[in-house]
């Protein structure tokens, strides 16, 4: 990566991280204030989708949610490290590299959204429940979507760069 001035770097895309963060927190606060907790209070939207207010004490797909609480700080630390790393990378990328800057920004917004929940509430608020028949995908939220979409964009960029070099 060549050196770019901070004004012309990818940090100009951090507004998108802020947008993802604010939308995520806004939706979570709305869910917490307006929905009853748990399965019995779900809102059936489509034959394969519910709104549902649940707490996630772990990471993606409730990974380590059954632990004593140490995982809260582990995932918070990981999120801060990833946010710092991606922000640094954005500072080295030109603002014109839209694909990577968007990917990094939405990951940052999602990571900070879930960190906010962990620090303020002690858990992450999840509210999107997709299912087929009796199989339910683990509930998730907008922050999780940002992280997953951003990660997928990074992976796809690896294939795109490979194809362009051949």
Automatic annotation (TrEMBL):
Membrane topology per the entry is: Multi-pass membrane protein
EC number, UniProt record: 3.4.23.36
- Where does this one sit in the cell? Cell membrane
- The main location class comes to membrane
Q: In which pathway does it act?
A: Protein modification; lipoprotein biosynthesis (signal peptide cleavage)
The record's GO CC annotations read: plasma membrane
> What GO molecular function annotations does the UniProt record carry, in alphabetical order?
aspartic-type endopeptidase activity
Active site at which residues? 126, 144
Keywords noted in UniProt: Aspartyl protease, Cell membrane, Hydrolase, Lipoprotein, Membrane, Protease, Transmembrane, Transmembrane helix
The protein's annotated catalytic reaction(s) are: Release of signal peptides from bacterial membrane prolipoproteins. Hydrolyzes -Xaa-Yaa-Zaa-|-(S,diacylglyceryl)Cys-, in which Xaa is hydrophobic (preferably Leu), and Yaa (Ala or Ser) and Zaa (Gly or Ala) have small, neutral side chains
Pfam families reported for this sequence: Peptidase_A8 (PF01252)
The UniProt entry, under InterPro entries, shows:
Peptidase_A8
**Which residue ranges does UniProt annotate as crossing the membrane?**
12-31, 43-64, 70-90, 102-123, 135-156
Gene Ontology BP annotations:
proteolysis
* Family note: Belongs to the peptidase A8 family.
Q: Which NCBIfam families does the record match to this protein?
A: lspA (TIGR00077)
Q: What does this protein do?
A: This protein specifically catalyzes the removal of signal peptides from prolipoproteins.
Output the HAMAP family linked to this UniProt entry. Answer: LspA
* Name of protein: Lipoprotein signal peptidase
Record the organism: Vibrio tasmaniensis
Name of the encoding gene? lspA
């Amino acid at each position: 990566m060549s050196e770019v001035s901070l004004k012309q770097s990818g940090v100009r895309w951090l507004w998108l991280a802020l947008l993802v963060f604010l939308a995520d927190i806004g939706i979570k606060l709305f869910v917490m204030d307006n929905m009853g907790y748990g399965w019995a209070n779900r809102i059936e939207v489509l034959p394969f989708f519910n709104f549902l207010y649940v707490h996630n004490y772990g990471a993606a797909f409730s990974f380590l949610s059954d632990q004593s609480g140490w995982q809260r700080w582990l995932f918070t630390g990981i999120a801060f490290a990833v946010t710092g790393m991606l922000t640094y990378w954005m500072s080295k990328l030109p603002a014109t590299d839209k694909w990577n800057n968007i990917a990094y920004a939405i990951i940052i917004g999602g990571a900070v959204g879930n960190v906010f929940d962990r620090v303020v509430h002690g858990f992450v608020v999840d509210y999107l429940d997709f299912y087929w028949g009796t199989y339910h995908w683990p509930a998730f939220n907008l922050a999780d979507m940002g992280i997953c979409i951003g990660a997928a964009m990074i992976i796809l960029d690896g294939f795109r760069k490979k194809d362009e070099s051949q």
